[in-house]
Every structure is written in structure tokens, then in C-alpha cells.
Design a protein that fits this description.
Number of helices: 5
Strand content: 25-35%
Order of helices and strands: HEEHEEEEEEHHEEEEEH
Strand order of the largest sheet: 3-6-8-9-10-11
CATH architecture of the largest domain: Alpha-Beta Complex
Shape: globular
Radius of gyration: 17 Å
Number of strands: 13
Largest sheet: 6 strands, mixed
Number of domains: 2
CATH superfamily of the largest domain: tt1808, chain A
CATH topology of the largest domain: tt1808, chain A
Length: about 200
């Protein structure tokens, strides 16, 4: 598909297209650059829209980003929330709910639109993305050499799965209503602060 046949990204107030044709990396980046309200991820030529989340989903992501930003202040680490792409080496482009990178960041493709070397990624589960976050994204994020921690976060109940790089393996620990320590970074995320201002809800299976 040539660049001239790319579908037009939706304008403000419009819904995105129900189906997007396969795209090359270059075509995807051009298309995603023109999208202002929706964001799109790229996986082996397939382009999918990043759907909006629930109140709790957005609140937990915002809380995590704020906490990490404060904890890493002055440590040459910066944290973004749902705004900047991350590229897996020779793999997909994702928009993590929360991503921490060294400062100054290493960017992919010589642009400032895509992080290339995150050290921490967090995905907040939703019913439509839980399978992807636990399967596809877990598998792909593990291929990023710089990544030290991947957090899979329940938005409605206090439960976080922390995955930590341990050489060639990854160690798992599940936190339930406990503060989440990040030994590689020497910081702890208070559970009360992660779930501050969240509404009661059901666990996402």
C-alpha cells in the first residue's frame, strides 16, 4: 500500500475507521502522526486503535505516572503516561499506560515521537485489553533489553503483578493491597497512592 492510499486519521469528534488496512512501519508512523484524538499501535503490519479506558483505568494510570515522576525526581529518569510511543526492537509500536525512560531519552528512528529504551512499563488492565497485556505485550516487552520492570495493574481492586528482569529470566511477584517495591530502583509505590480516588469495582479476570 502506498502512502497516498493511507486512510485519513479521524478529525476531532469523529470515530476512527472500523477497519484499517495493513501498513508498513513508515506508513503507520505517518498515519499515527496525523491522528490527534485517537492513538494507534502497530503489530506486524496490523494497526489497531488504542481504546479509551474507564474512570479507574485513567485514574490509576495518572496516579502511577505522578508517583513515579516524584520518586524519580532528580535521578535522570522521566515518566510519561499514555502519550508517547514505545518501540520493541524489530517489533511492535505500543502506547504504554505508563513508561519510564532514562533522561535524556533514547529515541527510535531519530525522532522524538518514539521511545527506544524504557526501563519500566506499566499496563492497566481493561476487559478489552487484559489478554493482550498479559500475553502479547508481556512477551514483546520482555524483548526490550533495557527493561527492568513490567507492571500489570488491576484498576478496580488492589492487585499488581510485578515482573522483574533476573538475567535471562523474569521473576514474578503479585501484590494484593500491599505497597509495591521496585528493588532495581530503590523505591516503593504506596498502594494507597496508586489507588487514590478510585471507585469500587470488580476484578478483571
Amino acid at each position: 500500500m502506498s502512502a497516498t492510499t493511507l486512510p485519513r486519521p479521524p478529525k476531532a469528534g469523529e470515530s476512527g475507521p472500523a477497519f484499517l488496512p495493513p501498513m508498513t512501519r513508515e506508513e503507520y508512523r505517518e498515519f499515527d502522526r496525523g491522528a490527534h484524538e485517537l492513538r494507534y499501535e502497530w503489530i506486524d503490519g496490523e494497526v489497531r486503535a488504542v481504546s479509551g479506558g474507564t474512570f479507574n483505568h485513567g485514574q490509576v494510570a495518572a496516579n502511577l505516572a505522578r508517583l513515579l515522576g516524584n520518586l524519580f525526581s532528580g535521578r535522570a529518569l522521566v515518566t510519561h503516561s499514555q502519550s508517547t510511543r514505545t518501540r520493541v526492537p524489530d517489533g511492535p509500536y505500543y502506547y504504554p499506560d505508563v513508561v519510564t525512560v532514562p533522561f535524556p531519552p533514547e529515541f527510535a528512528e531519530e525522532s522524538e515521537e518514539t521511545f527506544a529504551a524504557p526501563v519500566l512499563v506499566a499496563e492497566v488492565l481493561s476487559p478489552s485489553t487484559a489478554r493482550i497485556d498479559r500475553g502479547e505485550k508481556r512477551r514483546e516487552y520482555f524483548r526490550i533489553p533495557s527493561l527492568e520492570n513490567y507492571l500489570i495493574v488491576q484498576p478496580n481492586v488492589r492487585e499488581i503483578l510485578r515482573l522483574t528482569r533476573d538475567g535471562e529470566q523474569w521473576a514474578e511477584r503479585r501484590f494484593r493491597a500491599e505497597d509495591v517495591d521496585l528493588p532495581r530502583f530503590g523505591v516503593t509505590l504506596p498502594a494507597d497512592a496508586i489507588y487514590e480516588d478510585c471507585l469500587p469495582g470488580e476484578r478483571i479476570g
